[in-house]
Amino acid sequence: MESNRRNFLKIGGVCALGLGSLPIVKALAQEKGPAFSSDPRRLVAKRWAMVVDMKKCWEMGKPGCKDCVLACHTVHNVPDIKDEQEEIKWIWPEQFNHAFTGQENEFIPAEMKEKPFLMLCNHCANPPCVRVCPTKATFKSPDGITMMDFHRCIGCRYCMAGCPYGARSFNWQDPRPHIQTELNMSFPTRERGVVEKCNFCTERLEVGLLPACVEACKVGGLIFGDVEDPNSNVRKVLAERFTMRRKPELGTQPNVYYIV
Amino acid sequence: MLERAFTGSQKYYKLLGGLLIIMGLGFAAYLLQWNKGLTITGMSRDVSWGFYIAQFTFLVGVAASAVMVVLPYYLHDVKVFGKITILGEFLAVACVTMCLLFIIVDLGKPMRMLNVLFYPTPNSVLFWDMVVLNGYLFLNILIGWNVLEAERKGVHYPSWVKPLIYLSIPWAVSIHTVTAFLYAGLPARHYWLTAIMAARFLASAFCSGPALLILLAFFLKKYTKFDAGKEAIDKLSQIVTYAMIISVFFVGLEFFTAFYSSIPSHMHSLLYLFVGLEGHGKLVPFMWLFAILAVVALVLLINPKTRKDEYTLKIACAAVFFSMWLEKGLGLVVAGFIPNPFDQVREYVPTVPELMIALGVWATGFFILTILYKIAVTVKEEVAS
Ligand code: SF4
Ligand code: SF4
């Protein structure tokens, strides 16, 4: 009898504990991420994509305009390292035959050859950089952005060998002394020894802002939206205009499209 | 058994001392890298892996080659290899250690190294490479030590070692296959994107490793009472011959595929290596040296007279080892990054501190090798007397 009573008490105790922890279990079991991260203004998409209308850029933009580059590199504290070997770039111009390797032909209009195309991480749907990273420091977010965790990266640079677009930069040296723009205190600066690249301004989408480059482009040459939503602005452009992607034959499914 | 490493001739101490000095210099250079970061190397945004990773790649091959003495001895009962299997296993231990060190010195954030364990990522080949390399190191230490210990006591090695020996055979193949997969599966690195990458790696491993083993055996014969025996050397040199022929043949296959198809991206790296591309050709002399050494080695090895002669065999083995080092430990990794993803040629030249660090790692490997061989040779001498 004595032992029975003790058992009863034990069982009761366990049950009470179980009940007590129910709210925690519930909170943990929720499918959506924890509530604290979501700002009501947050922009959401199934898969973010960008259309770069180079025509608008060349025809309507001021000559040599680099507003987008400047905006991006300012908000992200991207250092300005002049040495080509150790350069850090998130978004930058590159001429046609370098941007679309293998797609140039002998008789291409001469001025086309020289024209700058905007390069940035393609946030590939099937990204080799994510596939090769041994620590998940490079990973895919649910909204299609290829993200970088600067604090987990061990600096093996496997992702740089994996990316077919040269979109990644490595901090060979301490980047902080090379930040020329005004420091953005709300975005982390990096340390030497880690890889970095364009993040589609995920921190701005979070608070309802468009990417900095998109916002900075006065002529509306950069169009940003959800490529899986048939009514989105990007889908409309993609349906109406002829677009190209870089190295489509590799199967990485880039999410940056170019209007030539 | 370890105490046998602490008593030796003057020459032995001089050798260790010399290696220690090089290790010290390498370490000093590494401190510089620790302070300034990888900026002290010649690597860049375009060629993001250089000398370190190339050495690592080459040495994985030398490590894997232990299987070339282990396999015939344990599976086919080739008795003449009895004496040198231990040398093969200990060579593997030293080489894998160097491999691991080369990976560590190449990391931008070495203090975060354990992240690979904290966040295991099965989709990354690098994760598996770490698993197989450490496993192989462990296996060879365990096997080598136990077999030697048993020999010293004049008994048969414990029965639980046997399965480990068998396991070590496919494991050796796996370390080099996985290392080849580090390269072979990357899009837009055309020079690496070849299905025979793993086969090429194994072929070059099975000639460069045994070639080094032959040279080491001659060295031991000269300076100690250890003699691997003429027959064992003979057999090993045959292995080197066949593996070298296959290796060179495989390189030829790459040429055929690239140039008969005439696809520019497939030709570019080879052009860069052997004739230069867009006026850049820093590796051209090295690659021609590779070609010449490979031919010399083949001529000396295929001809039975020169293969059986100790003097010419030494030259042939040195030629094999050095030519494969040039091909794999220099050309292969760098050429994968040239041209870069924008079809531009950005060259790479290692810097002095970078070379010093690499030399320091090599010295560390040879330090370990010297100690292990000293123990092995002393035990064998004791047993013999
Ligand atoms: S462009 Fe390069 S870095 Fe960006 S997602 Fe694709 S593979 Fe990764
Ligand atoms: S450098 Fe960093 S992000 Fe790139 S693969 Fe290595 S750990 Fe991942």
TrEMBL record, chain A:
Top-level taxon: Bacteria
Matches recorded under InterPro entries: 4Fe4S_Fe-S-bd, 4Fe4S_Fe_S_CS, DsrO-like, ET_IronSulfur_Cluster-Binding, TAT_signal
Pfam families: Fer4_11 (PF13247)
Key words, A-Z: 4Fe-4S, Iron, Iron-sulfur, Metal-binding
TM region(s), chain numbering: none
SUPFAM superfamilies: 4Fe-4S ferredoxins
Family annotation (PROSITE patterns): 4FE4S_FER_1, 4FE4S_FER_2, TAT
Protein name: 4Fe-4S ferredoxin, iron-sulfur binding domain protein
Species: Syntrophobacter fumaroxidans (strain DSM 10017 / MPOB)
UniProtKB/TrEMBL annotation, chain B:
Primary localization: membrane
InterPro entries (alphabetical): DsrP-like, NrfD-like
Top-rank taxon, per record: Bacteria
Keyword flag Transmembrane: yes
Membrane topology: Multi-pass membrane protein
Sequence intervals crossing the membrane: 12-32, 52-74, 86-105, 125-143, 164-186, 192-219, 239-263, 283-303, 315-335, 355-376
Localization per Swiss-Prot or TrEMBL: Cell membrane
Recorded GO CC terms: plasma membrane
Keywords for this protein: Cell membrane, Membrane, Transmembrane, Transmembrane helix
Stated family: Belongs to the NrfD family.
NCBIfam families, per database record: DsrP
Descriptive protein name: Polysulphide reductase, NrfD
Provenance organism: Syntrophobacter fumaroxidans (strain DSM 10017 / MPOB)
